[in-house]
Give the backbone structure.
Amino acid sequence: MAAKTPEQITDDLLRPLQGASGRYWSFLALFGGVIVAALCAFSWQVYAGIGVAGIRRPVFWGFYITNFVFWIGLSHAGTLISAILRLANATWRRPVTRCAEVITVFALSIGATFPIIHLGRPWLAFWLFPYPSERGIWPNIRSPLLWDFFAINTYLLGSVTFLLLPMIPDMALIRDRAIGLRKKIYTIVALGWRGTPKQWHRLESAMQIMAVAVIPVAVSVHSIVSWDFAMAPVPAWHSTIFAPYFVCGAIFSGIAALIIAMALLRKFLHLEDYLLRIHFENLGKLLLVMSLLWFYFVFAERLTVWYGNDPSEMTVFWVTQTGSFSPLFWLMVVCNFVIPFPILAIKKLRTITGCVIASIGVVIGMWLERFLIIVPSLSHKYLPYSFGTYRPTWVEITITAGTFAGMAMLYMIFAKTVPIISIWELKAAPEAQSHHAPALAPVPDSGAD
Amino acid sequence: MASTNWIYGLFPGPDSADRGVRALRAAGVVQEKILVMSSEPYEEYSFTRAEHETLMPWLATAGGIVGGTCGYLLARLTQVAYPITVGNMPRVSPFPTAIVTYELTMFGAVLTTVITLLITARLARKRPEPYDPEISNGKILIGVVDPADSARAQLEDSLRQAGAEEIKSTGSR
């Protein structure tokens, strides 16, 4: 890979912001169409009532809560990984962090809408918020669902600021090069940034504090999401292992989503000189570790249930291992372990393509995992007379598809309005600091992809 | 630093900018009057080492304490004000109270950090500040705020000799 000067870095990373191709608009229209379909489905649900969804006694949590847990988990891609790498002073993180942090903000926002969609009467969502109500009905502080409210909002605040603060110098860079309306917009969002030593120092200090603060918040968010389940006396939910198991799964799916996003950005925005094979390799190694950890948790969880031999838990156990949910369970194991493990463990296979294949498997597998935690337990709760089934309806499927399209669309729009790689951080990298010396050459791309 | 009277030079790189700052100091300009702006942090260079004292970590801690106190009071007072049947369990449940307190502690710390950054880094202000868009092209601005009219020529000379590619000034001459 050729060495890049600071000027080339700036030009390369600002290029995607200039105009859009027909292919870009076609994809945007496609995703927009799916989102419109999802909005129609949601409007129908609001008009006709929650009965149009497949959730009914005894399975009151279906696709919506599966999606909630899945998207909140996916949000661990960015801020948590970025904060850890920042604190560890891993210099290879610089081209990766913003791609990751954007996933967090969008995934968290999408995930947070699902409890409201799930309510059936979303206009009464404010009843869930802790405010002095004249009805004398306060939300129950003892409910983990209320803890979600605090945790998700704290994480959202932390993630949004963690994303936005390092964007300010880049906004100023665009402001100085833009003209017309764009200049006015970027002047506002640049917040009067001038690049004084005081501003740089305060920004660095703020980012260090945020990095320290956001890691425990990220861990707490998914722990609390797990406690939505673990605090309930439902078979296979009431487990002490759930919090770390969920956090592990969240980081696992988050890294997978990040790898997919990076591969797409690399291809469509022509960032081959910035998102190098070494980045995919390093993230692939992390994904491998998380795959092993995930397998360990699943094994430990199943082993404990097996030895406990509690009839209600064993019912859920067998229905997932050999019963009606077993195809989904074994598909999950294949997607989360059987496919990614050899690909990521064998150096020759840990190419960009290999990492993307493994990541696609993990994203599918982790969605299935969320579904398999929720539905089999609720449909096989204690006495057989109360057993039931769950079939998602077109409304739930369309809304689910809409959120995936929404994520893709938001990411595309973001990548066209903000440099998806932090320009100033890249230029400030130690290897670029010698200035006019080779700026970006951590490891030569072997050209395997 | 809302003055509209200043003189500055644009330097091509950090080494010449460093020389520029040293030249200004040698010319008797006090640190508070020296302007430095760049498109990168340049933490390794002495010209960026001013004003590194900050209360931000302490303010973040204080914000966390305020947030945590609010969280504790919210959780506790809610449970006391709206009692529910708890079946011989504590009316103020310790675990939920701790969780709400913790989340609002972090909320307070994060919010305070952002507000402190906006204020201390002088962001989002409406008053005009000296600036040159060439900074975004990699140039480093080194200058002086409110220079004495009699010293302008000497300062221009100092900046030029240190390696400034361009000298710009505003205000009286």
Observations:
- Helices of chain B lie at 14-26, 56-81, 94-120, 152-162.
- The radius of gyration of chain B is 25 Å.
